[in-house]
Write a structure and sequence with these properties.
Layout lengths: L4 H4 L5 H14 L5 E2 L11 H12 L12 H15 L8 E4 L3 H11 L5 E6 L3 H9 L3 E6 L10 H7 L4 E7 L11 H11 L6 E5 L26 E6 L12 E4 L2 H14 L5 H12 L3 H23 L13 E2 L10 H12 L1 E2 L1 E2 L11 E4 L4 H19 L1
Parallel strand pairs: 1-10, 3-4, 3-5, 5-6, 6-7
Antiparallel strand pairs: 2-8, 7-8, 9-12, 11-12
The structure holds pyridoxal-5'-phosphate.
Pyridoxal-5'-phosphate (PLP) binds next to loops.
């Protein structure tokens, strides 16, 4: 088969291939604990499910306007305006099937071949995949454990050049659980003001999964709002445990929103009508389920971090957001890929090598704690047995 050359540049998300390998082991009768996939294990809150079902029964079974139904665009505009302390109009909102298409569409819309894109490393692998896909050059800013997996602002500045077209931020972060502080955001804004032609894609999909303090968004900085050069990516998958519904959005300048909507009309036409009605219920309904999930994630985080630090050769700092632990494993004497394989094969614990998120992820594993406390406890016990043998 002869494929277009650009397809060779497209990457993937290892979480899905590790999940497939773990499922194959389960089919052989092995019992696997899943700490690899990044989705809440909770079911979608009942009132949201009800709203989706009611929408179908009420006949919302047709195409919707490309950028989304007006009432959800308005609710999202209000929510983003309130949470980020900025002005947002519904015309700036494009609703998509999950937040992921916003990466795809904005990179396609803004980045030309030969442009540079500054992005964190380790990071969500689709950023790098898409930058390569469009023929641009990814420039990586390392995130290190010593610095709480936050940017070193001098390294960030050094990565920018007159060729930089786009900067990608992600806080709270996958895979590290790191969070940019208000000071970090102010520092980044000061640097970005020196580069007025650079766009910012701020992936804020974990903004409600923050364990302490207030969420700080680059979009709240004067001159960097989504009416100008920042694109906010957010969605419902993580906050409302709605991964399978596929519902996310971007907030950006009106002219860019029109181009992004054009990309959507060329690909998937619109987001499912019933899903959008469910999203409206999520935003307008009670938020206690979100708070309940956050409290449970906090307890699991404390459990997994304490347990990991007891294991030989493992050192884990406390994640400040999202639902991932990113322990350093160099003292085990294994590479991250080898250790992830070993833990799956010998301990029946599925997790991801840090290298699935880029080269600066070497020496780390990513464990998703979107699993029950009981399973996390079991996984830690089994990992301990295997590590005792290999580390001594
Ligand atoms: N951004 C980050 C950092 C993620 O980890 C994910 C999902 O894992 C997404 C965006 C996309 O989520 P969705 O397309 O389900 O909204």
């Amino acid at each position: 088969m002869r494929l277009a050359r650009r397809i060779e540049r497209l990457g993937t998300e290892t979480a899905f291939s590790v999940l497939a390998k773990a499922k194959a082991l389960e089919a052989e009768g092995r019992e696997i604990i899943h700490l690899e996939i990044g989705e809440p294990d909770f079911d979608t809150p009942g009132h949201i499910v009800e709203a989706g079902c009611k929408a179908l029964r009420d006949g919302h079974t047709h195409y919707t306007p490309t950028a989304g139904i007006p009432e959800l665009r308005e609710a999202i505009a209000d929510d983003v305006a309130r949470s980020r302390g900025i002005d947002v109009v519904p015309e700036q909102v494009v609703i998509t099937p999950g937040g992921k298409p916003i990466m795809f569409f904005t990179i396609l819309a803004l980045v030309d071949e030969g442009d540079e894109v500054l992005l964190p490393n380790p990071a969500f692998p689709i950023y790098e995949s898409m930058v390569n896909f469009v023929g641009a050059k990814p420039v990586f800013v390392p995130l290190r454990q010593e610095h709480g997996f936050r940017f070193d602002l001098e390294e960030f500045r050094a990565g920018l050049s007159e060729r930089t077209r786009l900067v990608i931020l992600n806080s709270p972060a996958n895979p590290t659980g790191g969070v940019l502080t208000a000071d970090d955001i102010a520092g980044l804004a000061a640097i970005l003001h020196e580069y007025p032609n650079v766009y910012v894609l701020s992936d804020e999909i974990y903004s409600r999964l923050l364990f302490t303090g207030d969420f700080a968004s680059i979009a709240s900085e004067p001159g960097l709002g989504p009416d100008g050069r920042t694109i906010i990516l957010d969605g419902f998958s993580k906050t409302y445990a709605m991964t399978g519904w596929r519902l996310g959005y971007g907030v950006m300048s009106v002219p860019l929103a029109e181009e992004v909507a054009k990309l959507q009309v060329n690909s998937n036409s619109c987001t499912s009508a019933a899903t959008q009605h469910a999203g409206l219920a999520a935003l307008e309904g009670p938020q206690d389920a979100v708070e309940g999930m956050l409290a449970e994630f906090t307890a699991r985080r404390d459990l997994i971090v304490a347990g990991l630090n007891e294991l030989p050769g493992i050192e884990c700092i406390t994640p400040q957001g999202a639902f991932y632990a990113f322990p350093r494993i160099t003292e085990t004497g294994h590479t991250a890929d080898d250790l992830a394989d070993l833990l799956l094969d010998e301990a029946g614990v599925a997790c991801l090598s840090g290298t699935a998120f880029g080269r600066y992820g070497e020496g780390h594993l990513r464990l998703s704690y979107a699993n029950s406390r009981e399973n996390i406890g079991l996984a830690l016990g089994r990992m301990g047995e295997v590590l005792l043998h290999v580390v001594g």
